[in-house]
Fold this sequence. Notes:
Blueprint: E1 2-9, H1 13-23, E2 29-34, H2 40-52, E3 57-59, H3 71-84, E4 90-97, E5 100-102, H4 106-113, E6 120-122, H5 136-141, H6 148-154, H7 159-167, E7 197-199, H8 200-208, H9 210-218, H10 229-235, E8 243-245, E9 249-251, H11 268-273, E10 278-280, H12 284-287, H13 289-300
Parallel strand pairs: 1-2, 1-4, 2-3, 6-8, 9-10
Antiparallel strand pairs: 4-7, 5-10
Helix pairs in contact: 1-2, 3-8, 9-10
Amino acid sequence: MALAYHILAHKQPAQVARLVRALYHPDDVFVVHLDRSASRELHAMGIELQRAYPGQVHLQPPRAVLWGGPEIFNLQIEAMDIALRQSRPWHHFINLSGQDFPLGTRSRRLATLGPSEGTSFLTWFSPMETDHWKDARQRVELWYFHSVWINRGLAVPGIGRRVRSLLGWKNRLPYLYLYRRRRPKSFHYFGGSNHVVLARAACEYLAQDPQAKIIRKWLQHAGIGDEIVFQSILKSSPLAATLVNKNWREIDFEPPLPHPRVFRSSDFDRLASSENLFARKFDESVDASILDLLERRIQNGP
Length: 302
């Protein structure tokens, strides 16, 4: 049995290389994207990985990834397509960031996912029926601009803040003022985490099905579409019955912060006892010892 991994990274080359080594097995497929604006050291590391693991590590052309924009899910679906073209018969696709890390051995991942070969794992909820997202309606009804140049202009001190205030973009993604979109009737709106473990059949549907392509095209101008696209497409597909509302990730959010807490060595016992297969996030510049502890656990099993 084989697995396919997609890694999105924009910094910390040593930590990204450490992640690949922790995951490595000769039967598996790795697709890696390194942000266009990342350091030369990170891109050099990617080339080294490709040379070290020929035919297994595949580098995507570097593109600029904007927070809240469609490039994240575009790159992930492109990675699915790349993985599907490889000869290795992988059965699950796992997307990771450069700050994720496995919590156990490959054998444990196979023991968990192998019996569920046709099952996809992702979290979902109905945004219009809960208060989980306060901007749920705006995410799909507003037409958002996802432009590197607009973002650079808005980052100019003084001027950018005035423009945001004038156009109603304060603390929001740039959007087309006084315009509302109607959602296509062909799919239901679901949200959830972008971190997924998808069966091969789900990846084929996302990458190749005409209906999936229509939804993907419509979501290009949604807000934070990477938290909508997999859920909305797959829950509206013939594969809906094969989905499980779980993503096998240990993540610790501390409200009101919008990003997860960095795990430290003091969290090791919690991570070691977790049933989840991966955790995020880690930062070796904050605490590298937790990665040392997890590496030793992987080497010794389980």
